[in-house]
Amino acid sequence: MDREQLLNVAEKFGTPVYVYDSEIMRAQYERMINAFSTVKKVKLNYACKANTNLNILKFFKSLNSGLDTVSIQEAMIGMKAGFEPNEIIYTPNGVSFEEIKMAVELGLKINIDNISVLEHFGHEFPDYPVCIRINPHIMAGGNSKISVGHIDSKFGISVHQMPLVKRMVENTGLKINGIHMHTGSDILDIDVFLQGAEILFEVAKDFKDLDYLDFGSGFKVPYYPNGDETDIEYLGEKLGNRFNVFQKKYGKELTLMFEPGKYLVSQSGYFLASVNVVKQTTSTVFAGIDSGFNHLIRPMFYGAHHEILNLSNPEGRNRYYTVVGYICETDTFGNNRKINEIREGDVLCFLNAGAYCFSMASNYNSRFRPAEVLLVNGEAQLIRKRETIEDLLGTTIEISI
Is 329 annotated as a binding residue? Predict the structure, then answer.
């Protein structure tokens, strides 16, 4: 992190503002590709729900990434960014069949996680190849809100329902070209991931015309200084070797797919906000900033941790602050945090702000969403302007009352 460059961005574009470093994205992408170097065909599909800015999608396209989407709108943005339809995998949950038909019309790779939808699809589009998302019944992930592969999850088709799935495929003539799983986010335990992989292999061996196996993602990035993260190299060694054994036994060369989102962009992002007030009460010193959970909801929604640094006073003595926002509800970013002394007007920096931050921003309290800036070859480029009152009212239809 270049402190002076971030301060220059804050001065030039104002705060609050999101800043993303493309070189960190590139390094994470290449690290993951290199970790699976023993596998001949590896494809990373950037999970763009983490951050859907068009320019970030274009950047990953330039790295030869595919795209993982969960809505038709994400797929459309992906195509606008230059991805071909067959480079986009569409993994919806609970959407209407009309939206799935749109995915067929666009020519996307389609991932189905519901038996009734699979049956409907087989009757209507028996010649259109699809992937099946399984639920391995494994509890994995950083907390219950981001664990999606357990028995009570709404995601995926239970592994115990595979006999029904196979009978349905035989009856409709449906073409299955991929098997997919995703167990959760912030997965640290490699053995849990490998356990899920064995379940996926067991399911895959019964489908004879596969092109790829998609192992999802959910890899943990460090949120604290020297914090824990997924050992991607160890995973690459273990899963890569096991995958090679499986495809040899399967009798066909397959593509090993992943759909990393947060892993690729989280550490590239910085959220900059200015301190409006420093308020001391009987028990706490509050630092109130020019933002709130309308811009960064993860700490309030998930209990997610973002390190907070004082860019303006890095040599100031350490003091303890509760950093809060300006929303008319409790919106605490960090409680009792040790930060270099904060003064009104200082610029604070929130780390790990590249994933699920701007993409979850809202206009709550009728506040404008912030600008976004991308660092490319060391140059700060505006990739989304700060909203205005015209943007806020742009879809409103005023009637006579």
Answer: yes
